[in-house]
Amino acid sequence: MDARSKLRARRGAAALAAALALAWPGRLAAQYTDPPAPAAYALRGVTVVQADGRRQEGVTLIVRGRFVEAIGAGIEIPADAQILEGDSLVVYPGLVDAQGTAAYEFPKVEVDRREVASWDPPRALQGFTPHRRVVDVLQATGASLAAQRKKGVVAAAVHPTDAMMPGRGALLLFRKSVKAPNELVLDPVLGPVFTFRGGQGVYPGTLFGVLAFYRQSFEDATRLRRVAAEYARDPRGLTPPPFDPDYAVLQEVMGGGTPVYFAADLAEDIRRALDLAERYQLRPVIVGGREAWRVADRLKAANVPVLVSLDFPKPQLWKPDAKKDTGAAGLDAAVLQEKRRIEEAYANPAKLAAAGVRFALTSGGGKADLREGARKAIEYGLTEDAALRAVTATPAELYGVGHLARIEVGLPATFVVANGPLFAEATRVVYTFVEGALEKGDAGKARANGEKPAVVLTGTWETDLETADGKLSGRMTLEQQGSTFSGTLSTVEFGELRIRNGTVSGDRIRFTVVVDAGGQTLELEFGGTAKGDEMTGSGNSPMGTVTFTARRSSGPGGDR
């Protein structure tokens, strides 16, 4: 090596060491464990599946900042991009949970029930509080939503459902790094939620009372609107009408300008909701809808969408995993009744699809896993294409954010990357992107269910690391067990570094190098390919992309 090359190597080592030790001191002090995001990501050799079923195979997808920069075959990968090998990966639109979950809490109202007349209670006990808004009491942050992002969920509508008229929900985008709840909000105020739940030991405490209360409330809201209109026309001799925030919400939804989310599972409750909607010119959306298939014709005729909960009833008597029975043979009446009820819920989405009813599949407020529930619906007749639309395009369109379900150049890079067909049981989410920010999925399980290793990595590897400022040389010592491996990377500049979380799927490898930088721990992610005794790939560091090449000098086959 000539003097100039040695100087470049020393500078490169010094620059990398300085960056590892000094970059982002505030984050390091807070146990910073992830490398900073690269300038761009390149998903190479992936299949892109759009919400409408269109497929592009063997393409490269470039993400730069918040946006998709390029999609297509033969695209040149930018030098500053971190490469994510993808010849077995599939890119889908991100999952949009039309009735999801995020942390919020309405203030608790303290009431001395000894002073409450059951026939004339405060509205908080009745559950008549449609003016309340989730956005005003939202507590969620980007970090608190990580578990959902790891499962591919990129956005959710959060609806309160714990009272008769509990309030208005909000639409959230699950941005990764935000700390202020308001930075998650896409739509701060959705339509109000109406349920058929009675008051807390007060009127209206029965279904009959709830229905009467709804009718009386809408009549009162209509009267207040007329009084206000008359006062606006000519205020002489009239007392100014009071502002009532709850009746203002009812006035807003009458006429159909704002949707009303009716929480209803039973067919008869859905009919009650549709009757109220017809009488007061509401625009209903059914939430839950377990028996919506029973009133599919009416839902279709009125163009009423259904947010179908995948929180299916749990078997108590019926044993679905037992040997397949032949019809009712061997089942007593109670077991058979439960089996039919549960299987009707499983088949509900397929029947709605066959009837032409517009529907989305939901977690039921975070109670069910979207992909797992969709698999059950597919098992009972729903097509995979319809299931994909029901967790992507349909909910996005219902909430006015249809672009979230499109993977296109210039749009925000918000999508999910899986290691196989989205609804296959063995498939795992590898990455979720939300506006260009990457969240790793359950990578260990994803790769464990992937291809069998095509290469054995056990041995010693002479390694060169190329940075923007020069080359570092070192030696990797690896030990492989099945599809996982671990070991060490030794360099003159950094000493011995741990290698962990190594995985092999086919000839593709991924591993983490753990660096102790100034008493703090950094984890640098690398990925690439290994064929025979040669290994190549790249990783990301605080100073940019690092590429590596390695050649085995000794291993299972003996010294070389």
Describe the structure.
Residues 5-15, 18-33 and 444-450 have low confidence and may be disordered. It contains 13 helices and 26 strands. The chain has helices spanning 3-22, 25-29, 123-126, 146-150, 207-233, 245-253, 267-280, 296-302, 333-355, 370-379, 384-391, 393-398, 443-448, and strands at 40-49, 55-64, 67-72, 81-85, 90-93, 95-97, 153-158, 167-168, 170-173, 185-187, 192-194, 259-264, 283-288, 306-309, 359-362, 415-418, 429-434, 437-440, 459-467, 470-481, 484-491, 495-505, 508-517, 520-531, 534-541, 544-554. The two termini are 24 Å apart. The strands form 4 sheets. Strands 1, 2, 3, 4, 5, 16, 17 and 18 form an 8-stranded mixed beta sheet that branches. It has an 8-stranded antiparallel β-barrel with strand order 19-20-21-22-23-24-25-26. Helices cover 26% and strands 31% of the residues.
Low-confidence sequence ranges: 5-15, 18-33, 444-450
- Class from helix and strand fractions: alpha+beta
CATH top level label of the domain at 3-39 and 451-554: Mainly Beta
**With helices defined by DSSP (H or I, 4 residues minimum), what is the helix count?**
13
In CATH terms, the superfamily of the domain at 3-39 and 451-554 is Quinohemoprotein amine dehydrogenase alpha subunit, domain 2
Cα gyration radius (Å): 29 Å
**First CA to last CA: what distance?**
24 Å
Multimeric state: single chain
CATH topology of the domain at 3-39 and 451-554: Lipocalin
Helix content: 25-40%
CATH architecture of the domain at 3-39 and 451-554: Beta Barrel
**Overall 3D geometry?**
elongated
Strand count, sense and barrel status of the largest sheet are: 8 strands, mixed
- Proportion of beta-strand residues: 25-35%
* β-strand number: 26
Q: Roughly what is the average pLDDT, rounded to an integer?
A: 87
